[in-house]
Design goal:
Helix content is 40%, strand content 19%. The protein contains 16 helices and 15 strands. The N and C termini lie far apart (45 Å). The structure holds glutamic acid. The site of glutamic acid (GLU) has 15 residues, from helix 5 and strand 4.
Amino acid sequence: MSTVEFKTRAKLLLQAKRLVVKVGSALLVDAKSGRLNRQWLGTLAADLAAATARGQQVIVVSSGAIALGRRQLGLTSGTLKLEESQAAAAVGQIRLAHAWKEVFESAGLSVAQMLLTLGDTEDRRRYLNARRTLDTLLKFGAVPVINENDTVATAEIRYGDNDRLAARVAQMASAECLVLFSDVDGLYTADPTSNPEATFVPEVQAVDSNVVAMGSGPLSGLGSGGMATKIAAAKIATAAGCNLCIASGRRAHPLRAIIAGQRCTWFRGSDTPTAVRKQWIAGTLRPRGTLCLDPGAINALRRGKSLLPAGVLSIAGTFDRGDTVSVLDAQGSEIARGLSAYSASDAALIIGRKSRDIEMVLGYRGREELIHRDDLVLLS
Ligand code: GLU
């Protein structure tokens, strides 16, 4: 594939409203000195600032905490024990976040740190909380810089690699594009370092067993991910409707390079992220409860609004925050489904009331909407 064709393909990146960029440890931290590649980081931050200037929302998933911290603690050789990598992450994360803050502030952007555990992305309620926080940060123009919370994550409950974490973040944010920057420039039919027959794969339509077999390549020296975790990430991202790109970050201004037609491997998302999410909500086999609405609230939903407690006449069922509920009209026909922002017991107390009364009634300031429009899908 030619530079021009890669350049055309880069529209997938340019057209994304939300863009997630994952940076591997091997790029951020110099293998010999263990120091941060600050100058290179500055060029990436400039590229991301250019993306925000184009109107794109940007999220960074950054590795490097353990690689930076181990040098600081003098743990320079060998594989670290779990508690050593947890300690190294605690030391390194401060430095990492500081570096991102410096480079982004010089590029005129605010940064926000989010440390996630596997549980935050797998448990429905925590997932929705993290999703809302991401949304809010982006709304205020801050760039979330995300890493796994390695200090508390133990073997059984951690990702261990930021490729899959980045894919879950992209899914959580309903991002249209995820770029995985590492020291490899894309996917090959076999490991190119050991197999001279290996050829470059510019585009993957579906992550099937053939593609998975291509990913048995070597691990890079500093990070935890190899091609296998990148392909696993591609599976998660594409199923969520997100286009994913594996690209080399071994050059200054790596995002600009993709846009200019540098070769990389694209994995195409199955649909748009919003469509996938709405299909998933609509496809819930057993909604946990029902909300019956007055005609005014139904009209508001049809106009694309969120569901406010004021328009709900009655509720039934036992559901928790984040569970799927059916939305019915007064005759009992199902008109929509959505994820409830309140448990059934709290919802029962606030239905029919104005959103501004929620705090007084419940004693805490929850969401204004009972179902946010992003979490709602109209069925009829
Ligand atoms: N979370 C790890 C760190 O910041 C990196 C995981 C990975 O290498 O993908 O050091």
